[in-house]
């Protein structure tokens, strides 16, 4: 039982927050980092048609950041302490998942929501 509790704790976003950029104009600059199996942002809110410039900083291990539904919305898998910036346009409204594509990481809780408002 203790082991199961630890697994839940490892995958839970201990320092999670929401970033709402729906009231800003121009390119939306987003910095996201990770620690363990969690991103520091669990929800990002933007408007359809926004251009996003996302800088992902890896706080440890081997991780990436990606959103499958938008072209260019994926970093490479990065080693600890490395960062990469990607830029893309969110051209449709809806709720999309960003996640780490390293096997097992998404299932361990390394994901969040990108909410694109009409």
Description of the molecule:
This protein is mostly beta strands. The chain has one domain (2-117): Cupredoxins -  blue copper proteins (Immunoglobulin-like, Sandwich), CATH 2.60.40.420. 8% of the residues lie in helices and 42% in strands. It has one helix at 2-11; strands at 17-20, 28-35, 38-39, 41-47, 51-58, 83-89, 94-99, 111-117. The strands form 2 sheets. It has a 4-stranded mixed β-sheet with strand order 1-4-8-7, with no helix packed on it. A 4-stranded mixed β-sheet has the order 3-2-5-6, with no helix packed on it. Residues 1-13 have low confidence and may be disordered. Keywords: Copper, Metal-binding. This is Blue (type 1) copper domain-containing protein. GO terms for molecular function: copper ion binding; electron transfer activity. Pfam families: Copper-bind (PF00127). Residues 30-117 form the Blue (type 1) copper domain.
Mean pLDDT: 89
Number of helix segments?
1
| Proportion of beta-strand residues | 35-45%
Tell me the major beta sheet.
4 strands, mixed
The CATH superfamily is known as: Cupredoxins -  blue copper proteins
**Form type:** globular
User: Which percent range fits the helix content?
Assistant: under 10%
CATH topology type: Immunoglobulin-like
- Count structural domains: 1
Q: Which structural class best describes the helix and strand composition?
A: mainly beta
Summarize the structure.
The chain has 118 residues and is mainly beta.
Task: Name a few traits of the molecule.
118 residues, mainly beta, Immunoglobulin-like, four-stranded mixed beta sheet, disordered N terminus
